[in-house]
C-alpha cells in the first residue's frame, strides 16, 4: 500500500530534516521524493528575484544552535529538536544576561509540554523555543545577573535560492488538475508531512493509470513565497489550462474530514469535493475562504483567480497540536492518511472522467457558416438553435455536461448530443 510506504519514508527520512522556506532542508526533502519519482523536476529561483509584489528572501541554512549556562551545561540544543530555534534566526555568538535571554525565549503557557514553532522570515531576529515547563525551570534556577552563552551557527545568503519541485503526468488533453502541497516546515508531521505523503501516494496511484484523460500537475513548494514564485513564472499557462485543483494540508489525523472552498465557492473544485465526500459517504466540515491561511490564498488572489480549493482532515489551526512539537507521528496515522488520500483520489478521478467543454471561438460563433443555423427559420428550428447557443454560453471550461444541462434546462441526453455536434464542428475544444 503506497500510503504506508510514504508514511514510513516521511517518518524515517523526512521528519528529522530542518526545513524552512529556502535552504538545504527543502533540497534534501525534494531529493528524497525524487528517489521515488525520478521524473520530479527540481527548480530554483534566485534570492532577491522580484515575484509580483514580493522578493525571494535570502537563503537560510543552519548548522547548529545552543545555549550554555554558567555551569557549562547545554540547556537548549537545536540538534535535539528542530523547533528549538526560531526559523530564520540570524547568526549570533555572544553572552547575554538572563533578562535579554528571556526576551528571546518562547513557550506556550497553555501547553506546558509543547515546544512552539515560530518563524521570522522577513525581519532579522533570533530566538529559541522551549516547553513552558523548561522556561519555568530556567526562571527558578538562574539569577538575574547570570550569563548565558548564545550560539546560532546560521547563514543568510542573498545570493542563494528558493527551491521547489514539479511533476507532471501528461493526459490526452491540455486541461489540467493542479495538486499543490508545501515542504517548508521543520519537524511536524500533520501540518508539514501529511500533504507530501498524500501527494506521493497520488502520484504513485495515477502513474499506474494508462491514458489519463487530463493532465495532473503536482507541486511541492515552500508555502506562500513558493506558490507566489511559481505563479510569477507559470501563471499564463495555468490560467489557460487549469480547470480545478487542490491544496493539500493537514491530512494525517483521524478526527474529521474538511475542506475550504475557493473564493466564491462555486468552481468545479468545490463541487467535485462535495461529490467525493457523498460518494464515499463521509461527513465533512466546510470552511469558508475567509478562514484561509495556506497557499489557497495565493491561488485565489485577485488577478490569479485559479479554481483551487483545499482538502484537510482536521484543518490547520483547528487542532491543539498545530505548530508545536506535539504535531508528531503519534498524531498522524496510516488510517488517517488513507482517509485523506481516498477523498483526494476520488475527487481527481471524478474530474478526470468529467467532460468539461470549452468554446474554441472568441465571442459568439457564426453559426450559419458552420451549417448550424437552418436556412429556413421555424418555431422548432429556433428552439434548436437556442439550445446550441445556450450550451455555448455555459461551455466556458468551468462546467461539466451535467451542470450545463441544469443551467439550460435540457435533459443530459440532449446536452450530450449537442456537445458531440459542436465538437465535430470545432466550436468546442
The whole-number mean of residue pLDDT values reads 95
Q: What is the number of strand segments?
A: 16
Task: Give the overall silhouette.
Answer: elongated
Q: How widely separated are the two ends?
A: 38 Å
Named at the architecture level, the CATH assignment of the largest domain is: 3-Layer(aba) Sandwich
The helix content is: 25-40%
Number of domains: 3
H/E element order? HHEEEEEEHEEHEEEHEHEEHEHEHHHH
- Give the CATH superfamily of the largest domain: Zn peptidases
State the major sheet: 8 strands, mixed
Radius of gyration: 26 Å
Number of helices, counting only DSSP H or I runs of 4 residues or more: 12
Q: What structural category do the secondary elements indicate? A: alpha/beta
User: How large is the share of residues in beta strands?
Assistant: 15-25%
CATH topology name of the largest domain, in short, is Aminopeptidase
Poorly predicted tracts of residues? none
User: Largest sheet, order of strands side by side?
Assistant: 1-10-12-11-13-16-14-15
At the first level of CATH, the class of the largest domain is: Alpha Beta
